[in-house]
Amino acid sequence: MHAKITVRDLWKAYQTSDGRLSVIEGVDFEAAEGEFVALVGPSGCGKTTLLNHIAGFEKPDRGEILVDDQPVTQPSKNGIVISQQGSVFPWLTVRRNLTFGLNSLPRDEKRRLADHYAELVGLQGFEEAFPYQISGGMLKRVELARALAAKSEILYMDEPLAALDALTRFRMRLELQRILGSEQHTVLLVTHDVEEAVHLADRVLILTARPAKIRSILKVPFPHPRNVASREFVELKQKILRELGVDAGGDS
Amino acid sequence: MVLKTKILPPVALVSFLIALWWTAVAASGTIIIPSPWKVVLGIAELAQQGTLLEHVAASLFRVGTGYLLAAALAIPLGILMGSFNGLFVALNPLTQILRPISPIAWIPLAIIWFGVGNLAPIFLIFLSSFFPMALETTAGVHTIERQYIRAAENFGVSGLALFRQVVIPAALPQIIVGMRISLGVAWLVVVAAEMIALRSGLGYLIIDSRNAGNRYDLVVAGMLIIGVIGLLLDIAVRRLERLKEVRWKYAR
């Protein structure tokens, strides 16, 4: 398979008042076109830093990041970041949020795209609402639809569902699976929720505690839709948890 | 309900204070301080002569001109100061030095520069309303949450479009706060500014009534009219805070 994203020997350290803080030490991996890769690791391990580098928001000290074989030098519309705190613009209606960044398109086309993606993510009827009038789960839908409307080929998700309540989080996970199933995106998902990673991803990258290195890479061989209560699902989840140093018990 | 909770309490309080004023004047037998009724008669007298409207119009014209000029310069300057740190570093000390100087202190210079026509009071009102607007606008831009700027960068929105689509709407709620504070201050200094005015304005009315015959009923009439117009101006600017595009920033 063709590599959509290539990360080669990535290193990053920051100067802090307490001296040099090494955050990433030699990360290597590839994500194929259309692949869903989850990055899990202990909190503070540098997952978000790694994602910020790949998305072009930060420059590595050493190493290389390629998207479509081109070096990444700055953020681009081709890879949209969806983060925990969210960045839906509160001063725009849902519809105007969805057309944000489509400045070059004619009005009718913007509207058509906005309506299409509003419907796809289940926002129809809310197009004229302002963000403060809708729920946290709805805001995530807006953020996702905005990235899809911009025809972003890659989605960088940084704990996108972490701020939601447990029930909404689970529901949004199913929604994410459904929506992404109808589009062909390459996805990098940073999460501390191992179940979320196993539920959604084709592969799970397990990172070490800071400085981040790749500890292991596991394939998730189950077809969608996945049953989170099935034996093999639970076994894989626990295997990852053990790698992260958490023994959740169980019979496997 | 609105009548009962929002209108009745202030009306009751004001009625009580007027009654107290009336009783105090009657009990002390003062001939200098006018009773409320004398003030009403004074207002009626001014209205009959046709000078009341003239004074109000003159004051509103000066405040309006000075205030709008200040807004036209202070808001763009604040946006630039908030956006470009070099400009902020260069200009902030100067604004902090000029800000605490009372407009009254500028009166001698204002007369030298602008004479005793309309320009001198307009200049003083301009000065007094410039700084709150510039500083609130700067603060509004400084406190824009980073994720919005990052999202704009991610969607390829930069340059002028970044200002138009993100910086200005994100700072708008605080710009409106600055506009409201400034309008209050501008109206506050109208009396001082019109101490140097020729023959018109509410400030002139107050000073002239005192100087030409100790007409304290007209002095208090002028004070009350200034107060009531101040209230109306505040209500008008507060309407801006109810716009859907800015409500997200204020109390939900």
Structural features, described:
The complex is a heterodimer of chains A (252) and B (252). By secondary structure, chain A is α/β, with parallel strands linked by helices. Chain A has two domains: 1-78 and 154-252, Rossmann fold (3-Layer(aba) Sandwich); 89-152, no CATH class. Chain A contains seven helices and ten strands. Chain A has helices at residues 47-54, 94-98, 107-120, 136-149, 166-181, 194-200, 231-243; strands spanning 3-16, 19-32, 36-40, 62-67, 70-71, 79-83, 154-158, 186-191, 203-207, 214-219. In chain A, the strands form two sheets. Chain A has a six-stranded mixed β-sheet, with helices on both faces. In chain A, helix 3 (107-120) crosses helix 4 (136-149) and helix 6 packs across helix 7 (231-243). Chain B is mostly helical and 252 residues long. Chain B has one domain (32-249): MetI-like (MetI-like fold, Orthogonal Bundle), CATH 1.10.3720. Helix content of chain B is 79%, strand content 0%. Chain B contains eleven helices and no strands. Chain B has helices spanning 2-28, 36-49, 51-83, 85-98, 107-114, 119-142, 146-154, 159-188, 190-194, 202-211, 216-240. The longest helix of chain B is centred in the first third of the chain and has 33 residues, at 51-83. Chain B is globular. The mean pLDDT of chain B is 91. Classes of the chains: A alpha/beta (252), B mainly alpha (252). Chains A and B meet through strand 6 of A and helix 7 and helix 8 of B.
Highest-level CATH class of chain B: Mainly Alpha
The chain pair forming the largest interface, with residue counts per chain, is: A-B, 24 and 23 residues
Overall SS class of chain A: alpha/beta
Order of helices and strands of chain B: HHHHHHHHHHH
State the share of residues found in helices of chain A, binned by percent.
Answer: 25-40%
Beta-strand portion of chain A reads: 25-35%
Domain unit count of chain A? 2
Q: Helix count of chain B, per DSSP? A: 11
Supply the helix-strand structural class of chain B: mainly alpha
Strand order of the largest sheet of chain A: 6-7-8-3-9-10
Enter the CATH topology name of the largest domain in chain A: Rossmann fold
Report, as a whole number of angstroms, the end-to-end distance of chain A. Answer: 33 Å
H-E order of chain A? EEEHEEEHHHEHEHEEH
- Quick one: overall form of chain A? globular
